[in-house]
């Protein structure tokens, strides 16, 4: 992770902590819109981490069909297994 992503995640965690303090203990928050702002930034960072460019695109080669073997050429005797 780069420094910007760590900074956004830290601020988001701090805002979530302040939100739960206000909900549990009634401690007021000065800025209610900060949580929404950092939530959006965190989601954008998470999305950009998931979407990675594919620099090594390999050519897809379709599988070859199986080769039909002629079983008459094999030395197979069912009596050997009885």
Kindly, what is the distance between the CA atoms of the first and last residues, rounded to a whole number of angstroms?
A: 65 Å
Biggest sheet details? none
Strand content: under 5%
Gross morphology is elongated
Quick check: average pLDDT? 76
Please report the number of helical segments. 2
The overall strand count is 0
**Helical content, roughly?**
40-55%
From N to C, what is the helix and strand string? HH
Taking all Cα atoms into account, the compactness measure Rg is 31 Å
Q: Regions with pLDDT < 50 over 5+ consecutive residues?
A: none
Describe this structure in words.
The chain has helices at 3-25, 33-50. With 82 residues, it is mostly helical. It has a domain at 3-51. α1 (3-25) packs antiparallel against α2. The radius of gyration is 31 Å and the shape is elongated. It starts with a helix and ends in a 32-residue tail after the last helix. The mean pLDDT is 76.
């Amino acid at each position: 992770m780069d420094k910007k992503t760590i900074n956004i995640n830290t601020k988001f965690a701090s805002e979530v902590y302040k939100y739960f303090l206000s909900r549990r203990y009634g401690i007021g928050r000065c800025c209610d819109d900060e949580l929404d702002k950092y939530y959006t930034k965190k989601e954008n960072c998470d999305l950009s981490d998931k979407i990675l460019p594919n620099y090594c695109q390999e050519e897809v080669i379709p599988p070859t069909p199986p080769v039909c073997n002629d079983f008459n050429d094999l030395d197979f005797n069912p009596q050997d297994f009885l």
